[in-house]
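@channel sequence for tomorrow's demo:
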Amino acid sequence: MGVHKYFTEQDKLQITNAIRVAETNTSGEIRVHVENCCSGDVLDRAAYLFEKLEMHKTELRNGVLFYLAVQDRKFAILGDAGINQKVPADFWESTKNVVITKMKEGVYAEALADGIVRAGEQLKAHFPYQKDDVNELSDEISFGK
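structure tokens (generated this afternoon):
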């Protein structure tokens, strides 16, 4: 099954709306990447995609990637150096656990949206929106194979 089929148009809208809302309050950038399989370590794959999606090129190094391999049931959240210096040490792990708990209920879009809101709150606290802020990265979900 194509990875696009895991999400309805309404699901995709729920996720991209969560990104847009989170980003209206911060200069930070959030992306979601979804694919079917992740054959290796989930954090290694997320780091590879983080660079491939050019998330490391944000001015304040405050990008956050939500990565999901649907068939392999692997999930990771990866923050760039700027945001990682600011959030509590267990923030990404606790956020990941919140998302995974909801995913186990079968509500993937809601789970991702909740995690995005949590990340957005931290980004807002540490990287507030600036009036000259530019949306540096796409808000659309990127899909792999």
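heads up for whoever presents: The two ends are 10 Å apart (CA to CA).
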